Task: structure prediction
Amino acid sequence: MTDAFEVNFDGLVGPTHNYSGLSFGNLASTQNKASVSNPKEAALQGLKKMRFLTSLGIKQGVLPPQDRPDIQTLRKLGFSGSDEKVLYQAKKEAPEILSAVWSGSSMWTANAATVTPSSDSADQKVHFTVANLMSKFHRSLEHQTTFRILKTIFADENYFTHHGALPSCETFGDEGAANHTRFCNQYGDPGIHLFVYGRRAFSYAMETTTHPIVFPARQTLEASTAIARLHLIPKERIVFAQQNPAVIDAGAFHNDVVAVGNRDTLFYHEAAYVNSEQVFEKLQYQFQQINSKDLKIIKVGLKDISLSQAVKSYIFNSQLISLQNPKDAMALIAPLECKDNSNVHRFLENLKANTEQPIREIYYLNLRESMKNGGGPACLRFRVILTEEEIKKSNPGVYFTEYLYQRLYEWINKHYRDRLTIDDLVDPALIQESQTALDRLCQILNLASIYPFQQITLT
Ligand code: SUG
Result:
């Protein structure tokens, strides 16, 4: 076994973070539509989280935000003239499209891609497939830039393989790592992959009773299967599970709203899956085959926490991380909303006191700006298992240090507004501000020109 680490790449919140109510099925997004956002506070909250995780000994990285507004998309949809005119016309004729092209949604990097570590792939390379995010228009605009960013950071083809997004159609709806969990003993050991899907595309009509009725299921089995194939994961190390339609209808639009795993532990809500018993039997069997020990499964019952409390508090959207000391101890990085809810808070504190399970610490972080759009601690991070050598082969500029913290802190304070409403989304000055900020960010993170606006053609 080669030593490997879990590196959490957090999405830096972009300068146009706003509340546009774009994600039907994500209750927080709908409920907070048209609230006033504070991009500066949002970015600082995220930055503080990165610093905190670094202080716990977790390797941390940063992924840059995408350039918004996506004026090119507005032009593709028939709006023309100067940027100012394009924005104005879109506001008048199609305000939903306007909101979508301004969205800061790339901050939730758990949806950026699915990744397989080199220890699990037949060719011993790290594989990435960027998520097409086709179920929401504003998110479907992310994958091309995400692909460029990941390829720029993990550029060495001897170590990293990048797959483009799956075909953008209902059959292959893919939401990335938010619906994928890897279990292992130590990070460098071989892993078992749990892929969770919301619906089967090809047999949809025959299975209406097993699909959500109120909200859409975003991930398909067909997409998850294609990713497992592309990443060359041995078949005996894969489990596919269907998310319970009832939890999707209760507002759990990704698996990471009802479950979180780390190494040999799964923390999940009893209602999360269809045919749970078979799923866990298979998972245990596969885990035991390679580790000669059991997977630790921490089940939270409906009687302990209702689905509505789980979705509101985002208890399962916590990060479950390994602590340095004592060995094999874990911590839960939970959103502050878990403390606000007395039942959830009591549950977590009792869990911590129970020494038969590995969670020894619970930290409550203030991520309220992101939470108001349905993005908790686990949504904000894209975890990549990397060996020391693979870390060396990737771009050093994106790895978090105290020095990078200071630079990003100053950068946010200099470039971000502390108030944004949907009425501001016609302000051409915000385009300029945002581009200036992102241009500067590329220098700070030592990234090449990753944004379309930087591709200046000289005549
Ligand atoms: O896709 N919200 C995101 C939240 C993503 C959370 N990610 C995970 N669970 N991994 C979404 O629904 C809301 C944007 C708005 O309404 O302005 C939004 O896109």
Summary: The mean pLDDT is 96. The chain has one domain: 4-68+103-458. Residues 19-23, 26, 29, 103, 105, 108, 110-111, 136, 139, 178, 254, 256-257, 373-375, 379 surround N~2~-(3-carboxypropanoyl)-L-arginine (CB under 6 Å). Residues 4-68+103-458 form a domain with the L-arginine/glycine Amidinotransferase; Chain A fold (CATH 3.75.10.20).
